[in-house]
Each structure stands twice: as structure tokens, then as C-alpha cells.
Write a structure and sequence with these properties.
Structural class: alpha+beta
CATH topology of the largest domain: Fructose-1,6-Bisphosphatase, Chain A, domain 1
Helix content: 25-40%
Largest sheet: 7 strands, mixed
């Protein structure tokens, strides 16, 4: 009989390895070259650096030590991937450097390190680190969200209080959507999917909007990890039709909207509606 990991214990066990992966990413930043993966459909999907590989292995060492019975949905094909079973009661989903091409190599906005624990096709635990900003966010379903700054002890995530006019948006946001936001006075900043999903928790950022432009116009399984953290912090997480974003990690959805202010959410819905 397979035993599913306790979500809160999973966060405690894996968070240090995510912090180490974030350190690795920072150590390599500006010193690595793109070594594209063959057979991918776009430059974004193909982007790969030695930092991706090293960061993923750092996380997988911890996962293997604590939870060798889980299956994996890992972004990169690194050696430890093959030590895990193909199927299991619980799945660990990870992206060692989210936004490798645009955010990491080209420095166009925040990049992230992300790990999620899924059971019965729903995320039960999530970790998202933004190395360049020195931020890390954690959540286990039903236990609230926590944040750590510059490696300090994690504390309950600060109450959401929108400030400024900045919104994190996905790279490649359609021009029509960007115009709607800018016409309403928002400052639009591209960011990786992980940063978008926790945007209201980032100091000086009001909300996050991601509109899928690849993967058959669907928010990827990895792009949903941070939604659990945002929900646990009290944010509203919606999809393209204004309904709550589904908890199921595979349900097709075109857009992810995260915010705590009704006016921000309405503006982002208008931006999504402006895209054919």
C-alpha cells in the first residue's frame, strides 16, 4: 500500500532543497549559456542551462531521500529522474528554473524555482522561490501561506494589501491585453509563470495575469503550482471566464488571474476578453 506524503511535512522537508536550488541559480546567473534541448516546439521550451540541471538535481536529492515512492513530472531529464516510479499515489511536479530563456538568460523579469505535491490530481503543497528577489513562498492546503525573505525564517504571508500599479504578466502577453491594462494605468512587467501566480504576495506588485500562448493555449501543470499559495494567502484565483481556477492540475484553462482587489480582477478579465 502506497502512503501519500503529508503536505505540511512535505513543505518542511523539501523547502531547504528549493532554497539551495535558488542559490545555485543565483551562483550561475550571468555565467551560463543556453544549451537548447532538441525536439522542442519553441525556443522557450528548448531553453536549458547547466543551472537548470544542477538546481533540479539538488531538489531531487531531497525528494529521493524523503519520498522515493512518489512519481515525477520534472521539467528536465536529469539522472535522478530515473530513480522514481512512473506512477504513484502522489506526484511531485517541479521546474528548477521557471522562465529559463526570457527571465533567467535574458533577465526580462523574475524567474522562479517551483515544486508542487499533487495527490488525486490536485495540488496539496507548493513552494515557489524567486531567487533574484530573495523571496520564497510556501503553502500546504488548509494551513495558510508562508513567506521568507533573504533566507530568514518563514512567517505567515503578509496580509494582501495592493500597492503601486504594477502587475506581473506572462512573457508574450498579447498586445491587445497589454493595451487594456496600460490604458487603465497599470505598469505591466513580464515575469515567469511562478512569479505571476504569487504576484499579490510580492512587495510592490498588485496582481498577476497569465494568458497561455503555447502548449495548445493551456496553462501548464507547472504554471499552476503557485495558485495554491495565492489561495492560501487569501487571494482570488480565476480563469479566463471569471470562474475560480480549477484545482485539478490537468483541467484545460487558457488564463490565470491572481489578485485581491476587485478592480484589478475586473481589469484583467477585460484584458483577457480583448484577446481574440
Amino acid at each position: 500500500m502506497q502512503v501519500t506524503p503529508n503536505p505540511a511535512e512535505f513543505v518542511r522537508a523539501i523547502a531547504p532543497s528549493v532554497a539551495r536550488a535558488a542559490e545555485i541559480a543565483r551562483e550561475f546567473e550571468g555565467q551560463v549559456a543556453n544549451e537548447p534541448k532538441a525536439g522542442e516546439s519553441s525556443d522557450v521550451k528548448a531553453a536549458l542551462t547547466v543551472a537548470d540541471t544542477a538546481a533540479q538535481e539538488a531538489i531531487l536529492e531531497a525528494v529521493l531521500a524523503h519520498y522515493p515512492e512518489v512519481s515525477l513530472r520534472a521539467e528536465e531529464d536529469t539522472p535522478l529522474v530515473h530513480r522514481f516510479p512512473e506512477s504513484a499515489a502522489a506526484t511531485v511536479v517541479l521546474d528548477p528554473i521557471d522562465g529559463t530563456l526570457q527571465s533567467y538568460l535574458r533577465r526580462r523579469g523574475p524567474y522562479g524555482v517551483m515544486v508542487g505535491l499533487a495527490v488525486a490530481q490536485q495540488y496539496r503543497a507548493a513552494i515557489v522561490a524567486l531567487p533574484r528577489e530573495g523571496l520564497a513562498f510556501y503553502a500546504a492546503r488548509g494551513d495558510g501561506a508562508f513567506a521568507a525573505i533573504d533566507g530568514a525564517e518563514a512567517r505567515p504571508a503578509a496580509r494582501l494589501a495592493p500597492a503601486g500599479r504594477r502587475i506581473f504578466v506572462s512573457h508574450g502577453l498579447p498586445d491587445a491585453a497589454q493595451r487594456v491594462l496600460e490604458e487603465r494605468g497599470y505598469e505591466v512587467q513580464p515575469a515567469c509563470g511562478g512569479a505571476v501566480s504569487v504576484a499579490p504576495l510580492v512587495p510592490g506588485v498588485r496582481a498577476g495575469l497569465r494568458i497561455a500562448v503555447d502548449e495548445a493555449a493551456n496553462i501548464s501543470i507547472r504554471g499552476r503550482i503557485g495558485a495554491l499559495i495565492a489561495r492560501e494567502a487569501g487571494a482570488t484565483v480565476l480563469c479566463e471566464n471569471g470562474e475560480p481556477f480549477p484545482a485539478n492540475i490537468e483541467s484545460p484553462r487558457r488564463a490565470l488571474l491572481v489578485g485581491s482587489d476587485a478592480a484589478d480582477l475586473e481589469a484583467m478579465q477585460a484584458a483577457v476578453a480583448a484577446v481574440p
